[in-house]
Amino acid sequence: MVVLAASIVSKSGKVLVSRQFVDMTRIRIEGLLAAFPKLVGTGKQHTYVETENVRYVYQPIEALYLLLVTNKNSNILEDLETLRLLSKLEGSGGFKIDHMVPEYSYSLDEEGICKHAFELIFAFDEVIALGHKENVTVAQVKQYCEMESHEEKLHKLVLQSKINETKDVMKRKASEIDKSKIEKNRGDKGGFGPLQSMGSGRIENSFSDLSISSSGTGFGSGSGFGLTSDVDSFSTKPKGRPTSSATAPPKGLGMKLGKSQRTNQFLESLKAEGEVILEDVQPKLTQSRAAAAPLTDPITLTVEEKLNVTLKRDGGVSNFDVQGTLSLQILNQEDGHIQVQVQTGDNQAISFKTHPNMNKELFANEYILGLKDPNRPFPTGQASDAGGVGLLKWRMQSTDESMVPLTINCWPSSSGNETYVSIEYEASTMFDLRNVLISVPLPALREAPSVRQIDGEWRYDSRNSILEWSVLLIDNSNRSGSMEFVVPLADSSAFFPISVRFMATDTFSDLKVTNVIPLKGGNPPKFAQRTQLITDNYEVV
Amino acid sequence: MEKSCTLVVHFDKGTPALANEIKEALEGNDVAAKIDALKKAIMLLLNGETIPQLFITIIRYVLPSEDHTVQKLLLLYLEIIDKTDSRGKVLPEMILICQNLRNNLQHPNEYIRGVTLRFLCRLNESEIIEPLIPSILSNLEHRHPFVRRNAVLAVMSVFKLPQGEQLLDSAPEIVDKFLSTEQDPSSKRNAFLMLFSCAQDRAINYLFSNIDRIIDWGEQLQMVVLELIRKVCRSNKGEKGKYIKIIIALLNAPSTAVIYECASTLVSLSSAPTAIRAAASTYCQLLLSQSDNNVKLIVLDRLNELKSSNRDIMVEMVMDVLRALSTPNLDIRRKTLDIALELITPRNIDEVVMMLKKEVVKTQSGEHEKNGEYRQMLVQAIHTCAIKFPEVASTVVHLLMDFLGDSNVASAMDVVVFVREIIETNPKLRISIITRLLDTFYQIRAARVCSCALWIIGEYCLSLSEVESGIATIKQCLDGTYATQSAALETAMSPPTLVQGSLSSIGNLRSLILSGDFFLGAVVACTLTKLVLRLEEVQTSKAEVNKATTQALLIIVSMLQLGQSSILPHPIDNDSYDRIVLCIRLLCNTGDEIRKIWLQSCRQSFVKMLADKQRRETEEIKAKAQISNAQPDDLIDFYHLKSRKGMSQLELEDEVQDDLKRATGEFTKDADDANKLNRILQLTGFSDPVYAEAYVTVHHYDIVLDVTVINRTKETLQNLCLELATMGDLKLVERPQNYTLAPESSKQIKANIKVSSTETGVIFGNIVYETSSNVLERTVIVLNDIHIDIMDYISPASCADVAFRTMWAEFEWENKVAVNTVLQDERDFLNHIIKSTNMKCLTPPSALEGDCGFLAANLYAKSVFGEDALVNVSIEKQADGKLSGYIRIRSKTQGIALSLGDKITLKQKGTA
C-alpha cells in the first residue's frame, strides 16, 4: 500500500517532475522512470505496467504521462483513486498557479509542467503522505496549496494594530520628551531618556523595521529578531529546551535598558505573534532562586514567614495568618554538635513552638535551641528538603488591618462600552516589599487592555487573560501607587480575585540568630542567616 | 549508503543560472524574483552542483521572508541540501535553521505549520530535530486537522529515527492518547499508522477496544487495520483467529479498495477453504462490479494466483470468472479464458463449453470490430477444451464449422485445424463432420483454410457415397473448368472481375485458382487423385471409376493449361507444376505401392504429428511439476538465514517489506565473488603514473563502476579527477569530484551510470591531475574504453509462434549476418549461437531432429526495458562440410539489432 513516487514524464521519456515518498536513490528512480516509456505498449486498453519489482499505474495526458510507481502488492483500487485525484489536480488549471501568476495559462505540455514543477510537487505532497494516500478532495488540495489562513490574517491585524498603537505611543512620548526637554532642559534619568539609549544595536534596528514596514515584511523581521537572539542562546546551551531560553533574553535585555514601558509594549506585540514569548518569568524566578540557591556556608539558618491573607474588596481583612519557621541546615557531619542562640522581637501576638526533639526549657529560659540529647548531632546534608531541619515554628493571626503589609483597592467603573478600572496599592511602612506582582484577572479579551496610567510595569498574559502589574520595589519613595486601564464593558466582579505576590527581608517576628555555640569546644563556626517573608496566598476577593 | 533522492525536476541545461545571479535575486526584496531564484537554486542542487555559498545568503535573506511559497520552497531546499559532513556529522551551521523551523511550527498560519511538520518527516538528523520536539508535540493539539495529521506523521518519523526512542520516549503513549480523542479521519489514520509501526501492542489494543466501530471507520484507517492484521499474523500465527472476524466484517465495507485488501488479507492469512472461497468470490464480485480495466486485469492476476495455490476451490468459481467475458477488452477476455481453461474438470466442462458457445454465437450478431479476434480466442479455447475432454467435441464442432467461411482468416484457420484434429481423434464424429464439411465447403474463402479443408476431404472421405460427393463438391466448386478449354480461357481472361465479384456467388475455389494460386491448384489435384484412388477401392463398377478418373484428369489438365497460358501475370511455379504432373501420372498408372503411400502414410504422418504434440505438452507439464518440487538432494534455503544486507530481524520476517525493498532497489543479490573478479577491467598501464582499474557491476537500470586509482609516483597528486564520457544510451549520474592522492596511496572512486536502453554502450575516460611541483599544468591519462555488454540486459523469453511472426513482420530494423564459422555441425552451431546470445530457441527440438543438411530456427529474447529481440538462423551444410547461410536479427530499435549483430559476428566463429 505504498506509493513510491508520483511523476510526470513526457511521451518521449523525459522525466519532468517526480516526487518520491520513500527512500530511494536517484539512480534507482531515474532508472525506473527511464524504463517506463519503453514498457508502455500502444493500443492497450489498460493503464498499468508491471515489471519484476514494481508496478506503474499511469494516465496519458496529451503528450505526457502522469504515473505512480508502486510496489506490486499495492492496492490497485486505491492507487487508481490517487491517480485520478492527481490528474484532476493537474488538469484543473493549476491550483496555486492561476492565483500566483495569472498571466500564465497553464498548459499541459512539457514547458507548462516544467514551469510549474514545484507547484505540482506541493500538490503531490498534499495527496500522498509518506507513500500513503491522504483522504482529500481536489478542493481541499487547492485550499491547502493556497495556504489562506484566517488565523494568520487575524494575527496580522492584531499585530498591525499593535504596531500602530506602539507608533502612536512612541510619537506621543517623543513629543512629550521634546516638550519636557524644552521646559526643563534637563535629562532626567527616570524620564524617557532611555528611549534613545535603549535600542543600541539590533533591537533598535528591528524595532524600527517593525514599525516602519507595513504588514508585509514587518512580521518577518520580527521573527528575524527572534532568530538573532536565539542563536546566542543556542551557542551557550545547545541542549536547552528553547521554550524558555528563547524568550528570556529579549525580556531581560528590555528590562535592563531603562524599564521603559514601550519596551514592554513592544515585547507584548512580539509576543502576540504567537507563543514565542511565553510567561514573564522574572518575579517567580528571583523568588525561587532565592530559596533554591545552593548552600555554600557550612551552617545555614533560614527564617521564613509565609503570609496567607485574604482581603475583602470593600476593605477589611477576612483572614490574616503568618506562619514562620526557623530551619537549620548543616553541610558537614562534624559541625553537627551545636546550639543556636536566637533573639526575638517583642511581638506578643506570636507564639513559638519548638521541635519535639528540642530542649524546651533551654529555649524558654535562654532562647537557646539545642537537642534534648546533647550527644546527638543535628542531621546534616543537603539531601533533605531545601528548608533543612525545622527547629522552631511560630504563628500569628490577626484581624487588625494595620498589620497588613499591602492593601489593594480596585475600582471598576463602567461608562459607555468600556470599563475603567483603577487600582491602587498602599503599603505599610513595616516592610520594604520586593518583586511585587499584582495579577488582575480580566474578562477574555482579544487584545491587551489599554493601560492609561501606571506606576511600575504591566504585561498582559493573553493565555490566562490576566493583567500583571509589577513593581520591583516598594519602599518609602512609593508607599502608594496606582494604575488605570480600560477594557471593553465588563462586570466588576470579573476583576476579582486579585492575587498578589511579593517578598520582603523583614519578618513579623523579627527573629534573629545571634550566635551558634559549638558544643565540643573550639571557635564558633561560621554561619549564614537568611530571612524572608513571602506570600503564600495573598488575595483580594 | 547512498543518499536518497526525494524529488526530480527536469533541468534545462540550455539556460544555466549563475550562482551570483541567484544570490542577487535572493537578496533582493522582490518576492517573485526570490521564488524564481530559489527554484533555480534547487534545480542546480538537484543537478549535482553544490553551491555552498548560497546557504548563508538563504539563511540571511530567505529565512525571514513571509511569503508562503518562499517558505515552502525553502523547505524543499533544506530537504535536498547535504546536512552532514563527510563523516556523517551534522554541519554546525544547520543549527541556524532550527529557529526558523520552530517559528514555522508556531506560525499562526496552519498550513505553514503543516508543511513544516511534513518536512520534518523527511529529516534524518536528530540534532536538528531535538530542539523542535516540544513544538511538534504542541501541534498535536492544534485546532486544525491539517496540522494535527502532519504532526502525528512527524512524531512517527522522529520516533523511527535511530535515536528516536531517546528523543521521544513517550511518543507511543502520546499518540495513543491522541488517537482516543481524535475525530479527523486522516489524523486518526496517521496516528494508527504510527502505533502500528512503532508500538504494535497499543495499536492492537486500540483495535480491540473499538472493534464494534471498525465498519464505520474511514477507508484509510481500515486499510491500515488490515495491514496491521497481516503483520501481526505473520509474526504470530496463533493470533489469526482473533482477526478473521474483523476481516469478515470489513468485507462489507463500502469502499472497494478495502474489500480488495480484505480479500488479499484473507488469502495471506488462511488456506482454509472457506477463507479462500470468500476471497475468490470477493475478487469475482470486484471483477464484475469494477468498470476499470486495470482493476479487472489485476484482480484476474490475483485469481490466477489463487488458481495455482488452491485449484480445487477455484474450480467451483470457474463460471463466475467466466462472466468477465462480458467486457469488450480483449486482454481481459484472454486472461479470463486462460484462467478458466486451467480450471475445467469433467464436472464443469459442459457448463463452460455452453458458455463459450454462447459467446461464439454472440460474436456473430454484434458488429464489434474486435469480434473476429475474440472469436478466434473462443475457438482456441473450445479447441483446448475438446482436446482435454473429447466428448464435448461433438457438441461444438458443428457450431464451429459455421465459421469456416469466416472473413477473419485466423479464426477460420483455427476452426479448420480444430476440425482436422477432432476428426482424427474422434472417429465417431467422422461421418457427420465430413457431411457437414462437404455442405459448407463452398463458403470457404481463404486459400489456406481451403487447402486444409481439401486435405480433410481427401483423407477422410471413406465410403462410396462420401467419395463420390467429395469429388462432386470439388467439381461443383470448380464449375466450368472441366467444360472446354476455351471456356476456361474465356473466364480466365477477365480474372479481376471474377475474383472480386464472384466471391460469394460462384464457387470460391475457382476464383482463387483463377487468380493464380497454383499451390491451391496442386492441393486440388492431390485431393482429386486421393479420392479417385479411394474410389477404386470402394467402387465395384470399373466403368464408374474410369469415368471419375477421366473427369479428374480433365480438371487437372485444365489447371496445368491455365498455369501455362499467358493470360495470368505469373505462370505456374515449378513445384506446383511437378506436383500436378505427378498426380496425372498417378491417375494414369495406379499401383498398390503408390496407393499405400497416398492413402495411408499421409494419415500416419498426421497421427504422428498429433502424438508428438501431445507428447510435448505432457512433457511440459511434467517439467513444470518437476520445477515446483525440490530434488531429494537439493540444498534447502533457510529464508531467515539468507544474507540480507542491513536489514533488521523484523524486516526479515516481513514479506511486504521485501516487496517494497525490491521496488526501491534496496535488494541486490549477492553476486558470486568469483564472478566479480572476472569483471575487473584494467584502465591504465602498469607504468603510467596513475594506475586505475574498474570493477563493473551491472544492475537493472544502472551500471556502477568501482574504480581503484593508485598513485604510482612519489609526488602528491592534486585535483585528481576521473572524467568519464559515454556513448550510446548511457548517462552519467553525478559530476566527477576532485581528490588529492598522497604518494603511493590509493583511492576508491564510485561512478554511477544510468542505462536507458539495450544498446552496446562505451564509456571513455581520462584521469586528470596536477602535481604539487607543477600546479598549473594538468596531466591527462587516457583510459581504456569500457564496453557495456548487451548480454547483461537481455534474458531468454518465449512467445507464441504467431506473435513471433507478427513481430517479425512489424519490426523495422533488420541486421543480416552471414554465417562464417569453423563449426561443421548445424546443431552445434545453433547451440553455440544460443549460448553466446543468451536467447531461447522457439523452434521445438523435434523440428530440429534428423540430418538433412538444412536447419532453420527462431530465437527470442527480451530486454529488461521490455524490448523484443528476434533472431532467425537459417543454415545449410555445403558439399565441402562447411556451414553457410544467414542469421537475421530483427528488433524495434536500431540499438538491439546492431549490438546483437556485433555480438554474433564476434562470437560466431566459435572455436571454443
Automatic annotation (TrEMBL), chain A:
<dbReference type="GO" id="GO:0051645">
    <property type="term" value="P:Golgi localization"/>
</dbReference>
<feature type="compositionally biased region" description="Polar residues">
    <location>
        <begin position="230"/>
        <end position="247"/>
    </location>
</feature>
<keyword id="KW-0963">Cytoplasm</keyword>
<dbReference type="InterPro" id="IPR027059">
    <property type="entry name" value="Coatomer_dsu"/>
</dbReference>
<dbReference type="GO" id="GO:0006888">
    <property type="term" value="P:endoplasmic reticulum to Golgi vesicle-mediated transport"/>
</dbReference>
<dbReference type="Pfam" id="PF00928">
    <property type="entry name" value="Adap_comp_sub"/>
</dbReference>
<dbReference type="GO" id="GO:0015031">
    <property type="term" value="P:protein transport"/>
</dbReference>
<keyword id="KW-0472">Membrane</keyword>
<keyword id="KW-0968">Cytoplasmic vesicle</keyword>
<dbReference type="GO" id="GO:0006890">
    <property type="term" value="P:retrograde vesicle-mediated transport, Golgi to endoplasmic reticulum"/>
</dbReference>
<keyword id="KW-0813">Transport</keyword>
<feature type="compositionally biased region" description="Basic and acidic residues">
    <location>
        <begin position="170"/>
        <end position="189"/>
    </location>
</feature>
<dbReference type="InterPro" id="IPR028565">
    <property type="entry name" value="MHD"/>
</dbReference>
<keyword id="KW-0653">Protein transport</keyword>
<keyword id="KW-0931">ER-Golgi transport</keyword>
<feature type="domain" description="MHD">
    <location>
        <begin position="296"/>
        <end position="541"/>
    </location>
</feature>
<keyword id="KW-0333">Golgi apparatus</keyword>
<comment type="function">
    <text>The coatomer is a cytosolic protein complex that binds to dilysine motifs and reversibly associates with Golgi non-clathrin-coated vesicles, which further mediate biosynthetic protein transport from the ER, via the Golgi up to the trans Golgi network. Coatomer complex is required for budding from Golgi membranes, and is essential for the retrograde Golgi-to-ER transport of dilysine-tagged proteins.</text>
</comment>
<dbReference type="GO" id="GO:0000139">
    <property type="term" value="C:Golgi membrane"/>
</dbReference>
<dbReference type="InterPro" id="IPR011012">
    <property type="entry name" value="Longin-like_dom_sf"/>
</dbReference>
<feature type="region of interest" description="Disordered">
    <location>
        <begin position="230"/>
        <end position="260"/>
    </location>
</feature>
<protein>
    <recommendedName>
        <fullName>Coatomer subunit delta</fullName>
    </recommendedName>
</protein>
From TrEMBL, chain B:
<keyword id="KW-0653">Protein transport</keyword>
<keyword id="KW-0333">Golgi apparatus</keyword>
<dbReference type="InterPro" id="IPR002553">
    <property type="entry name" value="Clathrin/coatomer_adapt-like_N"/>
</dbReference>
<dbReference type="InterPro" id="IPR011710">
    <property type="entry name" value="Coatomer_bsu_C"/>
</dbReference>
<dbReference type="InterPro" id="IPR029446">
    <property type="entry name" value="COPB1_appendage_platform_dom"/>
</dbReference>
<dbReference type="Pfam" id="PF01602">
    <property type="entry name" value="Adaptin_N"/>
</dbReference>
<dbReference type="InterPro" id="IPR016460">
    <property type="entry name" value="COPB1"/>
</dbReference>
<keyword id="KW-0931">ER-Golgi transport</keyword>
<feature type="domain" description="Clathrin/coatomer adaptor adaptin-like N-terminal">
    <location>
        <begin position="20"/>
        <end position="473"/>
    </location>
</feature>
<comment type="function">
    <text>The coatomer is a cytosolic protein complex that binds to dilysine motifs and reversibly associates with Golgi non-clathrin-coated vesicles, which further mediate biosynthetic protein transport from the ER, via the Golgi up to the trans Golgi network. Coatomer complex is required for budding from Golgi membranes, and is essential for the retrograde Golgi-to-ER transport of dilysine-tagged proteins.</text>
</comment>
<dbReference type="GO" id="GO:0030126">
    <property type="term" value="C:COPI vesicle coat"/>
</dbReference>
<comment type="subunit">
    <text>Oligomeric complex that consists of at least the alpha, beta, beta', gamma, delta, epsilon and zeta subunits.</text>
</comment>
<protein>
    <recommendedName>
        <fullName>Coatomer subunit beta</fullName>
    </recommendedName>
</protein>
<dbReference type="GO" id="GO:0006891">
    <property type="term" value="P:intra-Golgi vesicle-mediated transport"/>
</dbReference>
<dbReference type="GO" id="GO:0005198">
    <property type="term" value="F:structural molecule activity"/>
</dbReference>
<dbReference type="Pfam" id="PF07718">
    <property type="entry name" value="Coatamer_beta_C"/>
</dbReference>
<dbReference type="Pfam" id="PF14806">
    <property type="entry name" value="Coatomer_b_Cpla"/>
</dbReference>
<keyword id="KW-0968">Cytoplasmic vesicle</keyword>
<keyword id="KW-0472">Membrane</keyword>
<keyword id="KW-0677">Repeat</keyword>
<keyword id="KW-0813">Transport</keyword>
<dbReference type="InterPro" id="IPR016024">
    <property type="entry name" value="ARM-type_fold"/>
</dbReference>
